[in-house]
Amino acid sequence: MLFILSMVFAILMGLGVIMIRMKAQNYPTNIKKIILPPFFMSSGALMYVIPYFRLTGLEILEAVCVGMFFSIFLILTSNFVVKDNHIYMKRSKLFPVILITLLVIRSVMKFYLSSTIHAGELGGMFFLLAFSMIVPWRIAMLIKFLKLEKTLNQLHIEDAK
Predict the structure, then answer these.
(1) Using an 8 Å Cβ cutoff, are 123 and 49 in contact?
(2) What residues does 86 pair with on adjacent strands?
(3) Considering the entire predicted model, what is its pTM?
(4) What is d(CA 144, CA 20) in angstroms, rounded to the nearest whole number?
């Protein structure tokens, strides 16, 4: 019963993220909007202060590798577009599909691993997996944003001449 409730909660959270992300595409983005989410999420690492959530070296390696692998799909579907001299996230029809697919894969992994890995360690692994997915994705977004911003600024300088 607890597992089913956690799955329903995860699905609702995933749908919430998709809705927030789709709304965010209607507003210009900036550096703060790109880099702050990983900083806010990093406070969750305080869970590792409690021994219940601590991971072995192999569990850390597994979670980081899977998270970085998943980030590739987010990086490939996150691009920017310039409208009215502002930078917006480009709408991607694949992005919601990828988020839902990652949620399903994560849920299946959680179900499968819950029989072999302690619940606290599993929670710690999935937090680290998510963090390892978000950080490379946001770094790639920042690099793309800065390149586009530089190009936009150069066009403004040329137009001013």
Answers:
(1) no
(2) 83
(3) 0.84
(4) 21
Q: Which amino acid is at 2?
A: L
Where along the chain do its domains lie?
2-160
pLDDT tens figures, 23-68: 878 899 999 999 999 999 999 999 999 999 999 999 999 999 999 9
